[in-house]
Amino acid sequence: MYLKEYRICMPLSVEEYRIGQLYMITKHCHEQSEKGEGVEVIKNEACEHPEHGHGQYTEKRIHLSSRLPGWVQSIIPRIFYITEKAWNFYPFTITEYTCSFIPKFSIYIETCYEDNNGSAENCVNLSEEDLSVREVDHVDIVFDELPQKHCKEEEDLKTFQSKKTSRGPMSEGWRDSTTPIMCSYKAVKVKFEVWGLQTKVESFAHKSVRDILLLGHKQAFAWIDEWHGMTIDDIREYENLKQKETNDKVVAGLQRQTSRGSRSSSTD
Questions:
Q1: Contact at 8 Å (CB) between 38 and 249?
Q2: Which residues of the chain are under the pLDDT cut of 50?
C-alpha cells in the first residue's frame, strides 16, 4: 500500500468550493465523455452516515481503455471500466475506486476541506500507523505543470482574472498572501497486491491521481465565473441535466464498440 496526502490550496472559501467542485466535476465528466469513454453515472442519491449525517452518494463507471499506457492495455479487456463510489458529507468525503477485472487493485481517498493554506498536520485524522508511512505532497494549481494536452491559455492561473470576483492573476507565494484561502486535504491509499507489479502500478496510479487533482482544482477556479452565485439547488439541477447528456454519449459509444467487436469476431 502506498499512501500520499495531497494538499491543494484554492483562492476560495470552503463554502464556495462546495459549489465549484460539484460544477467542475459535472462539466469535466461531460467534456471528457466521447466515443464510449468517459464517466457514466449509475447512482446519485441522498445518503446518511451515523457520524457525518446527511450526504450524497454517487456511483460511476469510468470508461478509459484507450487512455491507459500500452502495458496496461495489453492485460485488460477491450471494454474496461473502473467503479467509483463516493460518499459526500461535505466538508468530509470518502471515495473508493475498484476494478472487478483486477480485484487486488483499489484506491481509497479520505478528504477534508478547511479554510487554511495547508497548514493542518492531520486534517483527515489518520492513524499513527498511517502517519508513519504518509508522504505529503503540496499541489500548486498555479505553477505545477500539467501534461501539454490539458493546457489551455484561458485556464492559465498566472494570467487569469475572474470578472465576477476580481480574484487573480496569482503570482509566486500566492498561498501565503491570498484571501480567501482554503485547502483540500486528500489522503490517498493505493493498493495493488501483485508481486512484481505492485510498485509500478501503485506509482503509476499516484501519478494519475495527482494529474487529475491538479487539473480539476485548476479548472474549478478557472471556471469560477460560470458557477459563482449558484446555489446547491442550482448545482443539483445542473448535475441532473448534464449527467443524462453524459450517460447518453457514453452508452451510445459503448454500443458502437460492442457492435464493431461483434462484426470483427464474426469475420475471424
A1: yes
A2: 68-77, 262-266
